[in-house]
Write a structure and sequence with these properties.
The chain is about 40% helix and about 15% strand. By secondary structure, the chain is an alpha/beta fold. α6 packs parallel to α7, α10 packs parallel to α11 and α11 crosses α13.
């Protein structure tokens, strides 16, 4: 059924289809009795709560950041069975992101290329939505807060943007993910260098200690890091007692694609996600797990479409998995299908 619907949706602009699909599902959920019916259909039955970061997750399948940037669709995503939704990336000030078109499909590769550029409504608006959600929700859905810096903020002041988002969101999310690995904000990946990263994370840890209930802080890393850079990240994570890592973000690598080089070149810059990053993501998860003897929890993201993909990530050392591109290609039953296979 979804394959037929996907064929139709793929005829139109990806970004417009994203909002059309989620808004349509929202309207569907408002029909009396339909939401309860959909929840029963999509909610995984073969799961039990799983604890990591001292948080109880209803299941091991989450939605990666970038899908619900502005916390608009938490109710709908909960209905689809997600155990966790990572909102964002959120920045202190609202920003429009990069020029459109900025989201592209590569169906032959089961992939996407995006250069969204941290388009979001700003932390104040997102906090307002989360307040409303928290006041009404009675679910176990775990909310992660993925935070970044505004495009106009120079790198030397980036730590201030991360601190501002952290402080504003602290009471309304269950954990944080620091995003310094998107390829779509100029200069952002330079913050993955050890000294710059240490300044950001150390300051967040200091702020975190001032709260009665500190929140877990994770770092999202790029799949394009060398082993030497990964070693620096691991060393820093251990030194400052980071709670976990998310592996991995989108890649700038374009090798081994089925889509023609001309078509890829025509699309231009952006981060590639989906099946092409599957192997690299798994390799990074395994590398981190082995280097740390499993002492740093890992959320695996990258090329997860099926239960077999998720099992591979978990066997490599991941505690949880996140989907994004797989959700687009497999449809709203992806959580149910993965959990059934787990």
């Amino acid at each position: 059924m979804y394959q037929l619907l996907r064929s139709l949706l793929f005829l139109f602009d990806p970004e417009k289809v994203h909002y059309f699909s989620m808004n349509s599902f929202r309207l569907l959920c408002k029909i009396p009795g339909v939401q309860a019916l959909l929840r029963r259909f999509f909610t995984p039955k073969e799961t039990s709560p799983f604890i990591v970061f001292n948080i109880s997750f209803p299941n091991k399948v989450g939605l990666a950041a970038g899908f619900d940037k502005n916390a608009r669709y938490l109710n709908e995503l909960q209905v689809m069975g997600f155990g966790c939704v990572e909102i964002g990336t959120v920045t202190p000030k609202a920003q429009a992101g990069n020029d459109k078109p900025r989201l592209f499909r590569l169906p032959k590769d089961k992939a996407l290329i995006n250069r969204m550029g941290f388009n979001n409504d700003g932390v104040e608006v997102v906090v307002s939505r989360l307040k409303t959600w928290r006041s009404k929700a009675s679910s176990q859905l775990v909310i992660g807060g993925n935070i970044g810096k505004n495009k106009i903020t120079p790198n030397e002041d980036a730590w201030k943007d991360y601190a501002a988002c952290f402080t504003a969101l602290h009471d309304y999310v269950d954990y944080f993910v620091v995003n310094v690995s998107s390829p779509n904000t100029p200069g952002l990946r330079e913050l993955q260098e050890k000294d710059a990263l240490k300044k950001i994370l150390t300051h967040l840890q200091m702020l975190n200690k001032n709260y009665a209930s500190p929140k877990p802080i994770l770092l999202k890393i790029a799949p394009d890091l060398t082993n030497e850079q990964l070693n620096d990240v691991i060393s820093l994570a251990v030194d400052i007692q980071l709670d976990g890592l998310v592996a991995a973000n989108t890649t700038v690598d374009r090798s081994n694609l089925i889509t023609t080089a001309d078509a890829v070149e025509k699309i231009g810059a952006g981060g590639l996600s989906g099946k092409p990053v599957h192997q690299r993501s798994t390799a990074i998860v395994q590398y981190i797990h082995q280097k740390t003897n499993g002492t740093i929890p890992i959320i695996a993201s990258g090329g997860i479409f099926t239960a077999a993909d998720a099992v591979e990530k978990i066997n490599a050392g991941a505690s949880l998995v996140q989907v994004w591109t797989g959700f687009i290609y497999e449809g709203p039953s992806i959580v149910k299908n993965i959990c059934k296979g787990l």
